[in-house]
Amino acid sequence: MSEEFIKTTEQASLYDNLEQMDIKTLLKNINQEDQKVALAVNKQLPQIENLTHRIVKQLENGGRLFYIGAGTSGRLGILDASECPPTFGVSSELVIGIIAGGDQAIRNAVENAEDHELQGWDDLKDYKISSKDIVVGIAASGTTPYVVKALEKCNQENIPTGCITCNKNSPLAKVANLPIQVIVGPEFVTGSSRMKAGTAQKMVLNMLTTTTMIQLGKVKGNQMVDMQLSNQKLIERGTKMIQEATGFSYKESQIALKKYGNVREAIKNINHD
């Protein structure tokens, strides 16, 4: 007999009379709740490892990683996807975030977007998705129709699926091939899953893409040698990385970076010039 599905993300806060607390007490209590998140993520490390292995395999074979979600969950997926190109120098088409309601939903809620059962799959089809890719559904509740139905359709089309949710035994976790269930408990403000649930999802997303990119060779030592040099701060960081790796002066390293346009290439070629 399967365990009962209980929405712990919707359960009453462990705190009451919040409006009567002073600022110091509110902050202390929020922080106390946040400390539970990392411990909850730790309990899911084996599941996170399993999903990461599959993501790496799909990407090594020419596939892409898709995140699909609604509301805060969708925005977090888009955030993680959007940070991969500047951080690791990969194509913006390698990790793709999709949100219910489209791009306008990134900033403003789109009424009933998460309840459209067929739209999630339609949105994925716009990218000509195939079995080479992998789709990770993100939903704190684990019940969002837009996400659940999209993963169901992916399964039918032999597209591997994973999920990140914060309720145990949710419909989303049951449909995903590789589910991650980070049970953070009730939110400080009842039902406000942008808080602990959102923090948990962000932590897992960081782990998935960072570990994947390291496995794909996008980090050398502990540094982002393939990062995009999109502003002066990153150019300076890249110059110092070359300087540390080669022993060349700051000026020589700066010239090499400008010549090759990439930290990795500069380090590789600087001694051969």
Automatic annotation (TrEMBL):
Q: What is its EC number?
A: 4.2.1.126
The protein's matches in InterPro entries, at most eight in alphabetical order, are given as: Etherase_MurQ (IPR005488), Glucokinase_regulatory_CS (IPR005486), MURQ/GCKR (IPR040190), SIS_dom (IPR001347)
Reactions it catalyzes: N-acetyl-D-muramate 6-phosphate + H2O = N-acetyl-D-glucosamine 6-phosphate + (R)-lactate
Pathway assignment reads: Amino-sugar metabolism; N-acetylmuramate degradation
Q: Where is the SIS domain?
A: 55-218
Record-linked PROSITE patterns:
GCKR, SIS
GO terms for MF: lyase activity
Record: active site: 83, 114
| Keywords recorded for this protein, A-Z | Carbohydrate metabolism, Lyase
Q: Which Pfam families match?
A: GKRP_SIS_N
Family to which the UniProt record says this protein belongs: Belongs to the GCKR-like family. MurNAc-6-P etherase subfamily.
Q: Which NCBIfam families match?
A: N-acetylmuramic acid 6-phosphate etherase, PRK05441.1, PRK12570.1
Other remarks on record? A lyase-type mechanism (elimination/hydration) is suggested for the cleavage of the lactyl ether bond of MurNAc 6-phosphate, with the formation of an alpha,beta-unsaturated aldehyde intermediate with (E)-stereochemistry, followed by the syn addition of water to give product.
Q: What does this protein do?
A: Specifically catalyzes the cleavage of the D-lactyl ether substituent of MurNAc 6-phosphate, producing GlcNAc 6-phosphate and D-lactate.
Record's subunit section: Homodimer.
HAMAP family according to UniProt: MurQ
Under what name is this protein listed? N-acetylmuramic acid 6-phosphate etherase
| Species annotation | Mesonia aestuariivivens
